[in-house]
Structures are given as C-alpha cells and as structure tokens.
Amino acid sequence: MGKTIIISNRLPVQLQISNESITAIPSVGGLATGMKSVHSGGDSLWIGWSGLTDEEIPQELAPKIDEALAEHGSSKVKLTSAEVDGFYYGFSNRTIWPLFHYFLEYSEFELASWDIYKKVNQKFADAILEKATDDDTIWVHDYQLMLVPQMVREKRPDISIGFFLHIPFPSYEIFRTMPWRKEVLSGLLGADLIGFHTYDYERHFLSSVRRLLGLDVSFNDIYLDDRTIKVDSFPMGIDYKKFSDAAKEHAQRSEEQKSELQKRLDTHKKSTPDAKFFLSIDRLDYSKGIAKRLNAFEYFLNKYPQYKEKVRLIILAVPSRSNVPQYQLLKKEIDELVGRINGELSTVSWTPIWYFYRSMPFENLIDLYTTCDIAWLTPIRDGMNLVAKEYIATRTDKTGVLILSEMAGSANEMNESILINPNNFEQIADALNQAITMPKAEQQNRNSILQKRLERYNVEKWANDFMTSLRNQKEGNTTYVSR
Ligand code: ADQ
C-alpha cells in the first residue's frame, strides 16, 4: 500500500521566522487536528501553501523552510503574491465562497481571477504529481482546490483520489449562475469519492451533475464510461477528548492559575449571580450572521425588558480575509452596531455587549465555553460549524444551552439544541427567553444526548470513515463493469 497525500490550501503548520532560524509549529485548527490520525498514523505527506508568498521568503532561507516543513511531513506549493490575490482573495473568496453560501449578490465573476484559479490549481496538481506514485491515496480538501482531482486524474488514471468540501454545496438554481459551472463539476469528478458535511449538500451536488453534465446518476453513484464516483455525506466531528479534557482541567484551577479573562468573568458573575452570559464566536464573515445577531439581541431586550442589566452578550469575532472589501464593510457595520447598542442601552453598572475582535489562545476559548450559560450560534449559512460542537464538549456538568441556526450543517446532528431560523427575530427572542428559563435537569438531559453523539462521531472517526469509503470505492472500481 502506498502513502496518503493530503492537499489543502494551507498546511497544518505555521512558520515562524526569527533572524536566521525557521520553526514550523503545528497549528490547532479543525482540519489539522482532524487529519492527525491520518497524517501521523503512517506514511503520509501534506501538501499546501505555507502562508508566505515567494516575495516574503528570503532566497537564502528557502532550503531551511523546506527542511522545517519536511520534519512535519509537509511540503509547500510556492505562490507569488499576485497568485494569492487572484486565487485566494479573488476567485476562492469573492466568487465561490459567497456563491456557495447563497450570497449571490456578493459573487464576482471575473475571467482574470478564474484564470488564476485554474493556474494555481494546476500548481497544486503538479506538486502532487511530482510526489505521488500510482499506489498512493490522494485526499484533496475544500473549495480552493476543486479542479485538482481532474488535473491529477488526467496524468494518473489509476490513482485513488478523494475530495471533501468543507462548505455548503448550493442548490442547482444558485450553482448554475456560475459561468464556469461545468468546468468546476468536471474538476471534482476526477475524484473516486466526493464527500460533503450533509445529505442536503450531497443532493444539491448530484442534481447539478445530472442537470448540467447530463451524466447517469443513480442514488449516490455517478456513472462514467470507465469508473463510478461515489458521493456521500461525512459530517465532520471535533477532537472531543481535547475539549472535554481541557474543560475538566479548567474546573480544577486555583485562583492563581486562572487567566485574566477568567478572573474578570468570575468578578462579573459574582456581582450579579442571576445574570446570564450569551456567547457568540465566529470568524468575522458575513455568512456567520453576526450583524443580524446584534440586531436580534436589541430586539430581544425590547421584547423582554426584564432582562436588561441581567444578560450580557460576549462576541468574539476572529479577523478573517480583511483584504476583501465585503469583510472590511462588515467589520465597520459590526463596530457601529456594537457602539450604537451599547451607547443606547448601557447603564452605569451594565454594558450589554462585550466585543473582542481578535483570535484567542485555546485557553481563553475554554474560559468562554465553560463560563457562558448560553451559546448563541446563528450563521446565515455554515457548512458545519464546529464551535457549536466544541461548546457542548466543554460542558462537563452538562448544563448550558445551545441556540443554533438551522442553516448550519451541524443542526442536522444537534436536534437537542434550540434550533432557530436566523432571520426570525421573534423566534430568536423567544428562544433566548426559553434558554434563560430552561430548568437545569432539562439542560442536562439535552446535553448528555448531544455529548454521547459527539464523543462517538469524533473527528478521528470522520477521517477514518472517509478513508475507508475511499478504499472501498477504489476496490469496486478495479472490477468495474460499465452500465
Ligand atoms: P470555519 O468557517 O472557520 O470553518 P468553524 O467550523 O466554526 O468555522 O471552525 C472555526 C474554528 O476556529 C473552531 O475550531 C474554533 O475553535 C476556532 N476559533 C473560533 N474562534 C476562535 C478564536 N477567537 N481564537 C482561536 N480559535 C478560534 C469551515 C466552514 C465550517 C466548517 C469547518 C470545518 O466554514 O462550516 O465547520 O470549515 O469543515
């Protein structure tokens, strides 16, 4: 059996350059953690962009960077800053991301950025072809690399290729608006297995394949002349143990061991013991519905004024894609909304919204997850939403209420949370009231079911299920008889 090659836009390590020395530090993101069992389990290689453009890497340090990456089983694809602009900030995040999240009006269809997207996908494919042998297994990740499977297939017809999309696949009526829709579908069809977070995304994809390419599709198989392609859903889990262990350790901390943030949260909890903390954590992205959530919070306080001075909304927004104009506008909108709502409603002893615009260390995430009574995660569209799962995993005493958007992929597996439509302020206000007044026993009942499910279907199982399915598909294809 050959090695496994994982390909994603970014590598699972971050480079730190100081003076002449280079260090590659493993990153803690969901994908990196999720693939740990696949990546460190055996012979494997991870190919991706290092996060530094060619212009940012001093010539003399290039070999050291390669060495540092190789120590983590990684190999880089070189990109110029113009390529990163056109491919990442351009086509990936100004065309595909908004379109696939149903923000059709934000989607730009520019030939120049499509050309760069193709060129950079070819660079990734070439990097794979350089390293791969025919008995290797290739796992391509996400919307930035949708042409890679076919580009590899053309040169290596017999190699095993899987593709997983981390964002929604939109309905045919949305997808068909893209000028290069057939090319994108054909790019994906180079894979043997195509995975999505949910059954709905899978159905949308199959519908587009049938209607745009006229291919023979039956249940979740696509029939080509020489092979079949399996399409299936694999809802991504979290590293459950990491989050539950961190929460258990957190509960044992002495006063001196606590973080500054935790001490501050404790002080506020003590001063108003019946107060409730709402938590909202997302990357700052229009698909996450942060501005809507702020407006809904104001609506809630008007509908239920008895909660004024009793509730506090903690918003953690992680900076993201700040080179894209839509993200800059959104940042401005959120800054203004927070300022206006706090300005209008604050009293001498109460600021309704605490707003943090930054990335936080893992320790502080755990502070927030374990301290906040209610997690309020209401994206307008979200492929999965791992924050919802992480919140539940940290609730060691099983208390806490999750209010989750039905538009998040995770809603399919988290029926015991309070599911809401993020556009329905009336329903949201009532859901917040329900969460505040929910008896402890009911919280514990709901969360114990959720925890069991999340612990069982964790990220390791997700990765292993995908790889097993890919292996089975490949074995089936070697004995393939065309219909
Ligand atoms: P994202 O859109 O980034 O991922 P999400 O699934 O919520 O969204 O994952 C965010 C991750 O970042 C979480 O693991 C969280 O712990 C971490 N994080 C959040 N806030 C942080 C902060 N302030 N500091 C540090 N870390 C923070 C995309 C898709 C999702 C899909 C995932 C995985 O958009 O829908 O669930 O990929 O497939």
UniProtKB/TrEMBL annotation:
Span list, region Disordered: 249-268
One of the record's GO molecular function terms: trehalose-phosphatase activity
One cellular component term from this protein's GO annotations in UniProt: cytosol
Any Gene Ontology biological process: trehalose biosynthetic process
Highest taxon of the lineage: Bacteria
Family named by the database record: In the C-terminal section; belongs to the trehalose phosphatase family. Belongs to the glycosyltransferase 20 family.
Record's protein name: Bifunctional alpha,alpha-trehalose-phosphate synthase (UDP-forming)/trehalose-phosphatase
